[in-house]
Amino acid sequence: MKLCLIETHWGKRADKPKDEQYSGIGYYRIIKPAEYLAEAGHDVDWWAKDFSDAITKTDEVLQNTVDFFTGYDAVIMKPTDNFNAAKAIVAALDYLKIPLITDYDDNYLEIAESNPAIEGGYRKGDKERMVFLTLMSFADAIFCSTKPLADYYTEVQKKMGFEKDIFVLPNCNVIEEWEYRNTEPTDRIVIGWHGSISHNDDLAMVFPAILDVMKKNDNVYLLLVGGATIETLEPIAMWPDRILDRVAAIKGTPCWKGFPEYLMDQPFNIGLAPLVDDVFNKGKSHIKWMELAMKKIPCIASDVYPYREPVDGTPAIEHGETGYLVKTKKEWVETLQKLIDDKDLRKKIGDNAYNAVKKDWQYKDHIKKWDNAIQKVVEGAR
After folding, report:
1. CA-based torsion, 315, 191, 211, 207: positive or negative
2. Cα–Cα dist 287/347, whole Å
3. pLDDT digits (tens, 9 = 90+) for 351-361
4. Domain limits for position 30
5. Which residues pair with 270 in a beta bridge?
6. Read out DSSP for 260-287?
7. pTM given for the model
8. Which residue among 210, 254, 296, 366 sits deepest, i.e. has the most Cβ atoms within 10 Å of its Cβ?
9. Separation of alpha carbons 153 and 133, rounded Å
10. What is the pLDDT of residues 130-164, one digit of tens each?
11. Distance between CA 286 and CA 123 in Å, rounded?
C-alpha cells in the first residue's frame, strides 16, 4: 500500500526544512511508524505539514489538497484544529475515496486550566475544540497510544452519536537512536527531570520531597531540562540559598531533532517521572521512563497509569526491578534517599530498565500491529 503519514503540529515553521519541523509526538506517532511500515513493505511518505499556509479560495485549496493526496491508499495524521485545513483534508479525501485515520497521543479534551496547553483552544466552546471533535467524526478510524485514551474517546464518540474503530498502538523505542554514554557525575548526585510546560503541575508535586532530600544531602543537585519556566520554579523560589545554588533549569531542543543526543549528554544520576493522577494524565504513555532507561539510570515515577499498569499486555515499570512507583511524599523521599545512598542499586535498576526497553518496547517488534490495523481500515473502506 501507499501510505501518507502527517505530523501537523510543526507545519507552520515553513522557514525550516522538513526534518526540523517535527515534535516528539511526530517522532513517536508519525516518523518511526512510517519508517518501520516502509520496512514492512509499504510505500510510505511522511510530512510535517498543517495545510493552512495556502488558504485563499476554497476551490484552489481543495484542488491543491486533492493533488497532494492523489495516489495514496490511506492517510494517517495527527489531528489539526485549523478549520480550513480540516475542511480541505476531509473534502479531498472524501472526493478521492481515501480512508482517513486520526492518531491521538493526548487527551485534548481534559486539559486542566493550570496547564498552559489549554491556551491552544481546548476549552469548552472554543472553535479549535469543535474542529478537533468534528475531524474525529469524519475519520474512518482512530489510533491511540494507550487503552485509557481509547476508552475515553470511545465514550466521546457515543455521546456524539457516532462509532469508529479504535486501535491501541503503543509508543515504542528505537534503541539504535540512543547512543549510550556514561555522563553520570561521580562527585555529586544529580536528580534529573525533562519535559514540556504541560507538566508544570506534575513537577511541582514532587518539589517538597526534593527539598527534604536536598536539605539532608549537601551533595544532591536538581537539574530541570525543557519546559521549566519562572512559573514552574515559583514553588522553589523561597528555598534556602544553599539549596538554590544546587538547582539549575536549562532549555530543551526547539524540536525533536537532536533531542536524544541532548538528553544523553545531561548529567543525571536519578530520573523523575511525576504525574498528577487526573484524566488528562491517564492518556499519557510511558515515554519518559523509556527515555530515562536509555541513560541506564533509575527512574522514580508516580504510581499511576501509564507507569503502574500493564501497557499492551506488558508491564511498563516493574517496581523495584526496572524502576520505582511511588504515591506519597514519604515514598518519594525514601526512594530518592535509597538511590542516593546506593550506587550499585542505581546501576542495577538502570541496567534492568535499559534491557527491558530493548526487549519489550522496540518498534520493529510492534509494527505488525500498525500494519494489521491499517489493513483492516483500508479493507473496511473498500
Report:
1. negative
2. 20
3. 999 999 999 99
4. 2-172+363-381
5. 191
6. HHHHHHS--SEEEE----SHHHHT--SH
7. 0.93
8. 210
9. 10
10. 888 999 999 999 999 999 999 999 999 999 999 99
11. 26
